[in-house]
Amino acid sequence: MWHLLEPLHAVLYFAPQVSEETEALGYDTGERWPGYFALRAAPLGAPGSRQVASAFYSFSPRMVAEHIPAAWDVAAPGKVIDARTRGIDRAYRALFGARTDGPEVAEAAALARRAAEAVPLEGRPLAAANAGLPWPQEPHLVLWQAATILREHRGDGHLAALLTAGLDSVEALVSFAAVGAAPAGVFASRGWNEHEWAAARERLLARGLLNADHTATDAGRALRAEVERRTDALAAAPWRTLGDQATARLAELLGPLWLEVLGSGMLPRETTLGIGKV
């Protein structure tokens, strides 16, 4: 379900329609990050850089501080949330055309909302922040909000799994690169410098999790597999509540939308998500 829902959520960070909305607020859209930090952090209120670095986890605190709290000087969080709603509305209509207002999207939205309303929110700051927002009226916007709650719920649980595995923010990225989730250069987008990356490699080498060539040892692969297992287990509650039959129906309904998003070329081919890798 994460594979199907993640691209539907990620439209927020790559759709030109959303960029136009954030630019209208005054954000620099020449690069991705000013809008990204504002759009993702806005449901938390007007958080400071430490709060955002903690919740986002994988970003260098220096990089976060370049954008937060300055983002709230450009536009208040409420205005950012309104802008992202307008942007998603426009982006989904451009992607899905007449299907946007069709019965399949309405059915998918209802099922996804049922799952999203079943997520446990204890210790899940980003999921709770998005779950606290009012539900929109239009089904395609309900679908996006549900996808967002579910992905942030899973992401919050993923951080718990990383902490349990003893992987700090940069070690989480280094260990993920070591199992081939994406080339190490892709992870440079998170703002860690070469010294910090090298120091994390040395720590993981000392734990027996990396080989000298920076690939994962058997123990390193096993640890990353356990992180993914725990992440999935911590993300399972809404799908147990929805039930196998309804979950399968939602997957069926999401398939064509997923194909439209991926087929648009909007999303980058390589990301730090490592979908399909452990």
Please specify the SSE layout and strand pairing.
Layout: H1 2-14, H2 16-25, H3 33-41, H4 49-56, H5 61-67, H6 71-74, H7 77-96, H8 103-116, H9 125-131, H10 139-164, H11 169-178, H12 194-206, H13 218-234, H14 237-242, H15 244-263
3D architecture notes:
This protein has 278 residues and is an all-alpha fold. It has one domain. It has 15 helices and no strands. The chain has helices at residues 2-14, 16-25, 33-41, 49-56, 61-67, 71-74, 77-96, 103-116, 125-131, 139-164, 169-178, 194-206, 218-234, 237-242, 244-263. α8 packs across α15 (244-263) and α10 (139-164) crosses α13 (218-234). The protein is globular, with a radius of gyration of 19 Å. It starts with a helix and ends in a 15-residue tail after the last helix. The mean pLDDT is 95.
Question: Which key phrases capture this entry?
Answer:
0% strand, globular, 66% helix, 15 helices, single chain, mainly alpha, 278 residues
